[in-house]
Amino acid sequence: xxxxxxxxxxxxxxxxxxxxxxxxxxxxxxxHAEIGDSDKLVMxxxxxxxxxxxxxxxxxxxxxEIDGDYIYSRGAVDDKGPxxxxxxxxxxxxxxxxxxxxxxxxxxGCNEESGFKCVERYFKTEEAPTYxxxxxxxxxxxxxxxxxxxxxxxxxxxxxxxxxxxxxxGSRPNIVxxxxxxxxxxxxxxxxxxxxxxxxxxxxNVTAVVEGRRVVVTSTGKAAHGSTPFLGDSAYTRAMRFAxxxxxxxxxxxxxxxxxxxxxxxxxxSIDGRDLPSAELTANLGVVRSSAHTAILTVNVRYPVTWKxxxxxxxxxxxxxxxxxxxxxDQFDDSKPLFFPADREPVLTILEAYRAETGDLSEPKSMGGxxxxxxxxxxxxxxxxxxxxxxxxxxxxxxxxxxxxxMAKIYxxxxxxxxxxxxx
Length: 424
Prior knowledge:
alpha+beta
């Protein structure tokens, strides 16, 4: 998955060997470091890959700079800090000669952010855990992870007095678009009106320049994790809002459809809704690219745990057909939801260990993010930091210098308790 991931995996496996653990490299897809010799296996899974870095960082994204009480780096919270804390937790249990009726294994994946191909390959040859944790969410744990689907849309460019020539934005489906470029072609009869609207346009994050019969538009927003698009600011939405503002009346409906597909609740595709265990569906239009006379748009959807992904796909397809603008669903991929009832293992044991360590009586939560837990049997995700840390996928991601050790102590307690549970 690239030189950076290769070097990170080599570093992690070498560290495990130095600490006296048995290690294995699974063809560069993933690897692990392990202690113990039981037939039972308790696992912690972390990922070494990260999402891309955009402009706007105040600190070197891969410098791990300490500024005040925080370490700044891409992956500090998601989830290199937690991964190393879990790794040290296993080392601590080894060094203190803890009585462990199960092996403890730290798994390092290299493709969590863009497809889970790492764990798919890993579990073709490696055993599944008796119990596991993925330190990649929030405290105390997340027993419900929404389904994650990517809906790839084919959208013919509008044709009329205002038409789209080119549109580009976004780097990954699971990141809110923070830069977008749009080129529009207009009928000469609209020139005076367009220039007047550009001069008076309210959004200072949108720049529009008339070049002959074209308007070249650039917009900026704010990146955020695709599971919480409402915490970001979509540059695509800003660009399409401008396009709608200058569109002639006969094209308003079509440009409204282009704008609405970026709605963070999925309203623009008629896929909005909620359930009790996991609340509302979220939708993030994360990538848009021009292709001939069409645009290819990827909408990253986090749907409620009691829903089926195929129903989401069918609702979107039906909506597009009703709209009548020629849009189609070209591709759909789906990662099914995860849901562990709060009154079953391993949720109960993890809660007991966390509460004993912290005194915090918080209940399990649900989220729109996806972790390795959804791909590994008997595994749930647990917390990665506290107030002031993060945010994941945003500029200047950070973690407090005291938090890795605090996490390592909690992880060690959880893993120790899960090892006891595995024996039962």
